């Protein structure tokens, strides 16, 4: 009996509060996955890794992000530039200045965003050309970046610009939705009706972006629609809504996230399987109980690389919420 008590106390001392996985193991695996992702030969995975490192934060993550501003892939340079601003890395200024002359306009926009995040006020009309142009991808990026920049005195006119995009005759639905999500980030409650409408779209991607906007906007009407979307016909939408509910998620929502970690598409589609498992991991990181640390740890060890990265990103939320 004495030996048993000593053994239990030893486990407690090691911090084995997640069915045998301690904080050091969880954090170590998380960092292994994320730093491995940014070194992957797949540019898309490098982008996911950089975005996640911005969530992780810290001097080591910032140094790695700076190193990818010269990546051969424009999408990766964009992700690195964006991450530098999100992580508020003052040492990235030189690299961002160079990216203002990048061949990719998307990269230039991201560099301007991050320089402004770091206090630069030279680029007041930086996004106007993209918002008024014909390139839908650039218009969407411009909307997203304006939303992320917030309502500083320097950016006091962003809401009006975004409403101009949203109400422009002939504007594509995808750009309108991105403008609505950006307005939600800026706390503009007038956009709620639009978001509720987009939440009923027949296109899953529309519903997913509407969920992001509803989460950003908050309030009881937004909450009620998120609850409705937890019963969506598509598993990906359900899991995104569950994640957005955060602390207001119910027990059945938690169980859905747990089950989603082992989801397999009935048609054998590996991409759908990875997306669902990734969204389940993100949701579990946001709403999981202490015992779910083990589940996220295992999700970082198996499955597709994308699902592993999503599980590592979910682990960032999990560790922060449980004060590790």
Model description:
This protein is mainly alpha-helical and 324 residues long. The chain has 19 helices and no strands. It has helices at residues 2-13, 23-38, 43-56, 59-67, 74-86, 93-99, 105-117, 128-132, 136-149, 158-166, 173-185, 192-198, 204-217, 220-229, 235-245, 251-260, 270-287, 293-299, 305-321. Helix 13 (204-217) packs antiparallel against helix 14 (220-229) and helix 14 packs antiparallel against helix 15 (235-245). The longest helix is centred in the last third of the chain and has 18 residues, at 270-287. It is globular. The two termini are 31 Å apart.
Per-chain topology:
Layout: H1 2-13, H2 23-38, H3 43-56, H4 59-67, H5 74-86, H6 93-99, H7 105-117, H8 128-132, H9 136-149, H10 158-166, H11 173-185, H12 192-198, H13 204-217, H14 220-229, H15 235-245, H16 251-260, H17 270-287, H18 293-299, H19 305-321
Question: Which key features would you list for this structure?
Answer:
324 residues, 68% helix, mainly alpha, single chain, globular, 19 helices, disordered N terminus
Q: Averaged pLDDT, please?
A: 92
The largest pleated sheet is described as:
none
**Rg computed from alpha carbons, rounded to a whole number of angstroms:** 21 Å
> What general form does the structure show?
globular
Cα separation of the termini:
31 Å
Secondary structure tally: strands = 0
SSE sequence, one letter per element? HHHHHHHHHHHHHHHHHHH
- Helix and strand content put the structural class at mainly alpha
- The DSSP helix count reads 19
Stretches with pLDDT under 50, minimum 5 residues: 1-17
Helix content: 55-70%
Q: How big a fraction of the residues is strand?
A: under 5%
Assembly state of the chains shown: single chain
